[in-house]
Design a protein that fits this description.
- There is one protein chain.
- This protein is mainly alpha-helical.
- It has two domains: 2-57, Arc Repressor Mutant, subunit A (Orthogonal Bundle); 69-199, Tetracycline Repressor, domain 2 (Orthogonal Bundle).
- The chain is built from eleven helices and no strands.
- The longest helix is centred in the middle third of the chain and has 29 residues, at 88-116.
- The chain is elongated, with a radius of gyration of 20 Å.
């Protein structure tokens, strides 16, 4: 009995992942608003009712994807290192690494959310919350740099937070990667280098 239940649970999980992958593919290629549950079912090779019973309606599909972002981008571990590091350069590079993982591993999900925000009020709130979280993260990193005495003369927390938030915006990373062909390694190194030269006390300006 337990073996049978385990197989059923595994099959259910596999079906959910199949549906979520199909939804993400269509949300990013067609746009959230232009994608129907029927489209998702056809892409996944399942019946329409299966989409609803396995995961739910379109907003729930995207919410399930969003729920996985922090773990996919290793944000808890990286943020923990950032809060405890006493090296300003390491602190800054950890913030850039978070942006890199979000772009590299979760860029399609974030693009789907931006698309959904145009047509769904609740998901628009989620999108705005994500922007606020991004700015708050940049501010927290700037404050950490200030606490460590790492900010260069003439650079205050507000200026540092603005530069960090701007250079780690997902749109910028997507543009450099998709439009200009930069690798994520190249983007990460360039962003880190620019921010270090602009913000840190010990770097030759």
């Amino acid at each position: 009995m337990s073996s049978g239940m385990s197989r059923r649970a595994q099959q259910a999980a596999e079906t959910q992942q199949l549906i979520l992958r199909a939804a993400l593919k269509l949300f990013t290629s067609k746009g959230y608003g232009a994608t129907s549950i029927g489209d998702i079912a056809a892409e996944a090779g399942v019946a329409v009712p299966t989409v609803y019973t396995s995961v739910g309606p379109k907003p729930e599909l995207l919410r399930r994807m969003l729920d996985a972002i922090d773990q996919q981008a290793e944000i808890p571990a990286l943020a923990g290192e950032l809060r405890t590091s006493t090296d300003p350069a390491v602190v800054l590079r950890l913030q850039v690494r978070i942006a890199r993982y979000l772009a590299e591993r979760c860029g399609e999900i974030l693009a789907a959310l931006a698309s959904a925000a145009q047509v769904d009020a609740e998901l628009a709130d989620a999108y705005r919350s994500g922007l606020v979280r991004h700015r708050d993260g940049a501010r927290a990193t700037a404050e950490r740099l200030s606490q460590l005495g790492g900010l260069a003369d003439g650079v205050d927390v507000a200026r540092a937070a603005a530069e960090i938030a701007t250079l780690t915006r997902q749109e910028n990373w997507s543009s450099l990667h998709d439009d200009f062909g930069w690798s994520y390694d190249e983007i990460e190194e360039w962003v880190s280098h620019v921010l270090e030269r602009q913000l840190l006390q010990s770097v030759d300006r």
